[in-house]
């Protein structure tokens, strides 16, 4: 299995319609890191993920993956999972996965043959197994619980075996009990599949539990006359130990003060 990539962010800024959203992001992320990303609503966390996916391009600066500039467009080696609504309601679990794979359209149109078809089937079978959805493979999303739908969304991202996995509040809509199961699933997949992960969350406890590195986004420059004059940057960058870790009371206090603390039981 190939190694997960190293990601370097050099002086990246993003401006939308003249409004700076992110400014001077600099980051050196070792291969296989699990980065959790927190920050106030609207500070540019999703924009950061979209730039890592090449759905958005930086206004200034650039991002490197294993020493090369990121491609200008999304590629199969980078997968993303959103909070909800990424699955097709009129397709079964299995067909959602087939469509998510490169072989999707031709298989659905009945045009894959021989080796390609069996490769597609193998990839779907393997991914269903990994994600625990084999028994539900012929169901439609409406017949699945919220947790199972999110498993399917993760499976869609994993079927192309990405080396970078981007997660944008993937468990935000789930009940706390289900969320704990999803944490175990995600950590297992991360260990097994050798990926560099960036996960946005509003739950600081989740950020500490899952991450090997915590990034906090916030504005450091403020103009009271012009609240949109400056963008956010990385204000807090913490390596985490990963063994039953919880934020220290001092860290919690600091994050609370900065307005980042939204623990969800
Ligand atoms: N395509 C776009 N065009 C113009 N403005 C945009 C675009 N995408 C995002 N923005 C603006 O950029 C800012 C950052 O948005 P973004 O979604 O990245 O924040 P966020 O930190 O992920 O927020 P939340 O935590 O609420 O999801 C917001 O003010 C948003 O309105």
UniProtKB/TrEMBL annotation:
Signal peptide: none annotated. Keywords: ATP-binding, Nucleotide-binding, Transport. Gene3D superfamilies: P-loop containing nucleotide triphosphate hydrolases. GO terms for molecular function: ATP binding; ATP hydrolysis activity. The keyword Transcription does not apply. Residues 244-265 are annotated as: Disordered. Residues 253-265 have a biased composition (Basic and acidic residues). Coiled coil: none annotated. Residues 7-242 form the ABC transporter domain. It comes from the Bacteria. SMART domains: AAA. Belongs to the ABC transporter superfamily. This is ABC transporter ATP-binding protein. The lineage of its organism: Bacteria, Pseudomonadati, Pseudomonadota, Alphaproteobacteria, Hyphomicrobiales.
């Amino acid at each position: 299995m190939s190694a997960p990539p190293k990601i370097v962010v050099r002086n990246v800024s993003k401006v939308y319609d003249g409004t700076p959203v992110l400014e001077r992001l600099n980051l050196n992320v070792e291969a296989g890191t699990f980065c959790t990303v927190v920050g106030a609503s609207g500070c540019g966390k999703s924009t950061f993920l979209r730039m890592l996916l090449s759905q958005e391009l930086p206004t200034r600066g650039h991002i490197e993956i294993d020493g090369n500039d990121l491609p200008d467009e999304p590629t199969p080696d980078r997968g993303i999972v959103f909070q909800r609504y990424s699955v097709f309601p009129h397709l079964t679990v299995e067909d959602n996965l087939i469509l998510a794979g490169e072989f999707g359209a031709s298989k659905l149109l009945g045009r894959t043959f021989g080796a390609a078809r069996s490769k597609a089937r193998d990839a779907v079978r393997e991914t269903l197994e990994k994600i625990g959805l084999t028994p539900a493979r012929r169901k439609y999303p409406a017949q699945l619980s919220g947790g199972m739908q999110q498993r399917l969304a993760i499976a869609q991202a994993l079927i192309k075996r990405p080396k970078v996995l981007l997660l944008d509040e993937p468990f935000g809509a789930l009940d706390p009990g289900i969320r704990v199961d999803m944490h175990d699933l995600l950590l297992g997949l991360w260990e097994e599949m050798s990926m560099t992960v960036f996960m946005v969350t509003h739950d600081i406890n989740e950020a500490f539990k899952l991450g090997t590195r915590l990034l906090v986004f916030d504005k450091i420059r403020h103009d009271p006359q012009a609240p949109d004059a400056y963008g956010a940057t990385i204000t807090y960058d913490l390596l985490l130990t990963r063994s039953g870790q919880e934020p220290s009371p001092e860290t919690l206090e600091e994050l609370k003060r900065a307005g980042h603390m939204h623990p969800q039981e």
